[in-house]
Structures are given as structure tokens and as C-alpha cells.
User: Fold these one by one.
Assistant:
Number 1:
Amino acid sequence: MSSADYLLSDSASELKRLRLQARVWEAETEAWLDHMGPMTGWRCLDLGCGAMGILGPLARRVGPRGRVLGVDIDSVQLGGARAFVAD
């Protein structure tokens, strides 16, 4: 599958929708990650991160000594993720 196969990849409204979706599920994600225990210093991968994924919750847990990498096939989604991280 290429980014051209993703029907909504060039849509600004799709980036917005995916960020909203990530925020809606963030509390559930936080609870799930809490079950994994301390993650300070970990290296984490958010595969298929889209415009936001769980980059924020992972980054908060790994702290400044850890590393979080977001990967997505769609360059527009990655641009959205980069903008999220920069904010």
C-alpha cells in the first residue's frame, strides 16, 4: 500500500479528524500504558502513527532520556505528526 492508496491522505479535515480521534482515546491509551509500568528511558515506536497517534503519551512516559519514533506510510500524515510534536 502506498500513500496514494489512502483515500483521505490529502485532506486537512482528515488530519483534524485523526487528531480528534487520538484525543478522544488518549485517556484509554494512558490507562493502557500505565499497565506496562515505568517506561523512563525506553525507546518506543508508534507504527502507523498518523497525524498524532500515541506520540504524546509515549513521550511523557519515556522522558528526556527516552526516544519515541512515529512512522507512517503517508507523508501528509507524517507532516501532521511533525507539526503536533513541534507544538
Number 2:
Amino acid sequence: MSRASSAFEAAFTPDAAIPGSVTACEISEPYLGPLLAKWGGTSFDGGIYRLIRPEDVRDWVCIAEGAFPSFRDRLVPFGVDWLGRLFALDLGRTVAGSPAVTLLEPGTAEALEIPCTAESFHESELIEYREEALAASFLEAWLRGGGANPGPTECVAYRQPLFLGGSDTVENLELADLHVYWGIAEQLIRKVRGLPLGTVIENVSVRK
């Protein structure tokens, strides 16, 4: 990992971690590989952001491609925020000659392009634009309202997804298992994909 990694480490305090295996990190990207090898599975600053364990990257590829099939064979997931939003490198898009970051949102069913590399995302974007990148003030509002910080395997999920008419408010949030949330979101996103804007969805059922 480059010397500049100290900026990320100085700005974010680790608070919890999922034990990882002793296998070597297979991520070849020169910044991201060492970062995940050192910090994979670790949650920072009360769960606002966490890095994925290297051994879990392939599972997250399958999860992401299930909800967003247009990104098949393009994603290298590396991080998740407190809202369960997945950050990944998009091998089909570059910034300064390196793969660019894409944000996949289970609550809105949207994929947002972030004009950063893995290094500039961690060493600049998350630090200088913490609010925009991680919705920090929304997390503070959730906590002030009595909500709990998400653990390493949890997120704060939308009870009713925004793409199904849910409100972007604290009242529409709940603590949830991260993988369960994404499993439900994947099914719902598949159900509504391709429907005209404003279509009313009725009698939705999901398999947990």
C-alpha cells in the first residue's frame, strides 16, 4: 500500500472486525489489494464504512451482479457503508488509467459513477467529501432518533425501498442483516426492472 494510505488510516478509526482467513489477498489492484489485506472485514467510525474481507469479494460479486446484471464481469467490490450501499471498482470504466469506483444502492436500485480510483476514493473522497460519500449527517440523525450503530454484518436498511415509494427519512429506517437486506433488494429490483416510471407494484413477496 502506498505511503498516502496514512491519510485514510488517520481519518477513520477501526471499531470492529470480522475475523478473516490467513489466505493471501487475490486482489491485484496495487492500492486496493494491500488495503483489503490489512483492513478487510474492519468497520470504521461506528459502522459508517467498512472494508470487505478479501475472501468475501467473490460472494459480493455474485450479489451485485444479481441486482445489477449490466455490470457482469466488471465489478470488484471493496466496501460497504452504513446504509448497505456497495462500493466497487468498475473494470469497464477508468479514471487516470485505473479502474473507477461505482456505488450500487439497494435502496434506490441505482448505480452511480464516482470519478475516483480506489486510492483517490480512500485518500481524498472519503475524507474531503465524507457527507456526500457516506451520508454522515443522515447517520447522525438516525442515532439521535434512538437508532443503533450497525455491526460489521449489519446495515441500516430502508423499510420500504425508495424505488417502491419509500421516504428518505429516519422513520423509514431499521437495523438489518446486511446480506438479508441485499437478498431482498435483489428480488425487488429484478421485479421492477424495465417497468415504466410510476408503475404501481402490488402483492410483492420475497424469499428470505
Number 3:
Amino acid sequence: MFEQANLREPRNVLGDWVLRGAIAVVFVIFGAEKFSSDPGSSWAKLFEQIGAGQWFRYFTGVVEILGGVLALIPWTATAGLALLACTMAGAIVILVFVIGRPADCIFAAGILIALIAFWRSRRS
């Protein structure tokens, strides 16, 4: 009876690769978009509102690409997921307190929750 309580279901390796691949693709694409040279792009305008300078846009792009790549590699996936979760938490804080548009953080909050849920599922 107690033996069954300690048994864990084996992790689905293919599902793990698919989810990590999807996370990597999404964050590499969003990170690469931040390197647009168009000063009228939505990312340039958003980071202008933040007021930290355009270097912060490039830094965020590098962090997102790095986090996506790290999430793809099995032995660095935890570090990549943590980096991306911190990025999404930072986006939420900036949208709520710096820009003053709390409704805009729903997308970032959803991604943050999904990243945390995926990380927790990998731990078991």
C-alpha cells in the first residue's frame, strides 16, 4: 500500500523536448525582435517609455535568447527556465510600476506561470 505512494510516473522525454523546444523558439524569436534597427518599432517605443535607454532593450534581447538556448539543452534547462522566469517577473514589475499599465502584464504573467509550472513538472 505505501509502496505505491512513493512511485512516480516516468517523465515523458519526448514531451519534455517538445516543450523545451517551444520555449526556446518563442524566446529566441522575441529576443531577436528586440534587435530591430527601426526606431519606430514597438520594442523601441516600449523601452523608450521605460527610460533605461536602448541598451536595456539589447540586454533584454540577449537574456531572452540566452535563456531560450539554455532551456533547450537538458543539463542547463533549469538555469534557462530560471533566467526566463526572472525576465518575465521583471517585465511584470516594469509594466505595473514603471509604465503604469498593469493590464498589459497579463501576457507576461501567463508566461511566468507556465514557466514555473513546467519547471515544477520537470522536478518530479
